[in-house]
Write a structure and sequence with these properties.
177 residues; alpha+beta; 3-stranded antiparallel beta sheet; 13 strands; Peptidase M23-like protein; Cell_wall_metabolism_enzyme; metalloendopeptidase activity; Dup_hybrid_motif
Length: 177
Amino acid sequence: MILAYISLFFILNTESKEADLKRDFQALFKSNPEQALRIPCILPTTDLKLGISSLYGYRRHPIDGTQKHHDGIDIVVKKANVVATANGIIRRVGFDKGYGNFIEIDHQNGFYTLYGHLSHIFVKPDDKVQILSIIGISGATGNVTGEHIHYEVKYKNTTLNPLNYILLLYDSISSAH
């Protein structure tokens, strides 16, 4: 029943304003933290010396110059740990000419996250991971102009803006005090 509630809850709220998403996550975190921690809710790195070089949405591709939709955000870091942004199971690990070395996590509630351009991967398919588990190291593999983490959040095969998710847990903890 709880999983059905969460699925319906997030289908209805994936396009809500950021403030609504934060409020809804805080309520879920208070009532069922185990379920809340299966929703992507933190930065995909513990390195706070970072920048964001490319946002979610349409942009001029930095290599081929064409206008394309960017399905994630690019977080500029150097040799940084890459961490799971929610509890889940490793769905896929591999190499793609665009993403380079990548990891995809199934959070078992309709959410998936993807971490691309990694120099090292520490997990394999079917591994269980917890939020903050180190799963890889940032890199410059695949189609890139420099070292970074490409990070995507998907809900039932629809990409979502990761910026709406990366601070959910921090906001929930800080609002509790």
